[in-house]
Design a protein that fits this description.
This protein is mostly helical and 280 residues long. 79% of the residues lie in helices and 0% in strands.
């Protein structure tokens, strides 16, 4: 059950980069990030209010702040900035290192101690993703790559803290309160950014911002945190090894991006690694 919920979250996340590329047709990077945060926070806050969920305990606020900084503000902004110059396919394979980053972060934060077999499979999967990235970029490190690597770190911290909190409160409340906590910053950012960046509404742009706000930022994280709480952070994080491959499919179908012949080979290697980590 937990692995299934986490897997559904990964499917939702796999559409994030193509949807962000669509959103950039209508909004600037700062506007898109802020608007998605505001929309997601309004939905989350409405759900919390309707269900009369009590305020989180004060001791949980620092953890929620980390979740907000990593998954509500940091990761969306950094990846959106990267996608101004990077293809979604390239961004997807770089962010494919997120499972290993999350597993390492969880070992430091919550004392998780996966087996040697687990780490070996995770490292092999990460190596496959790195090899694919180098093949696509010719070995060059761009500014977009710097944004993406920074996004890995802040997102892994948010995932780790969110997974820990999801053992204490329902996963949807974790991301819900994190979104509400960030609403003042998101609203201020939206007001400033919309005044400085041009807005050209298109069907793709509107669909993109709605998906990243409601599908990726809220629904996907609800499923993801519930899954992590059920099966553990390291094990759930390895399911994200499939996310770059799913994103490659969406990139080809929705954006018409070219996918090289290396993709199927990477897919096989990654899926094998997922199978090994799930049995470790």
């Amino acid at each position: 059950m937990g692995s299934g919920l986490a897997a559904l979250g990964v499917v939702a996340f796999s559409l994030t980069f193509p949807a962000t590329a669509w959103g950039l047709e209508s909004f600037g990077p700062w506007s898109l990030t802020a608007v998605r945060g505001v929309l997601a926070a309004l939905v989350a806050g409405g759900c919390l209010l309707f269900l009369r969920v009590p305020l989180p305990a004060r001791r949980h606020l620092p953890g929620l702040a980390v979740v907000g900084a990593g998954t509500v503000l940091g990761f969306p902004l950094l990846t959106t900035l990267a996608l101004q110059t990077s293809t979604t396919a390239h961004a997807a394979v770089v962010v494919g290192l997120l499972p290993l980053t999350t597993a390492a972060m969880s070992a430091l934060r919550v004392g998780a101690r996966p087996s040697r077999r687990f780490w070996t499979a995770a490292l092999v999967g990460a190596a496959a993703v790195v090899a694919f990235t180098i093949t696509q970029s010719g070995g060059a490190v761009t500014r977009a790559d710097v944004y993406l690597f920074a996004a890995l770190l802040v997102c892994a911290a948010g995932y780790t803290e969110g997974g820990r909190l999801a053992r204490i409160m329902p996963g949807w409340q974790v991301i819900g309160w994190a979104l509400v906590l960030c609403l003042p910053l998101s609203a201020l950012g939206a007001a400033l950014a919309l005044g400085h960046e041009p807005v050209r509404l298109t069907a793709h742009g509107v669909a993109g911002v709605l998906w990243v706000a409601l599908g990726s930022q809220f629904l996907g994280l609800v499923l993801w945190y519930r899954g992590m709480a059920a099966v553990g952070i390291p094990r759930a994080s390895q399911l994200q090894l499939a996310q770059p491959l799913l994103t490659l499919v969406w990139s080809a179908l929705l954006l018409g991006e070219h996918v090289t012949a290396a993709a199927p080979l990477t897919a096989v290697a990654v899926l094998v690694c997922i199978a090994v980590t799930q049995r470790s």
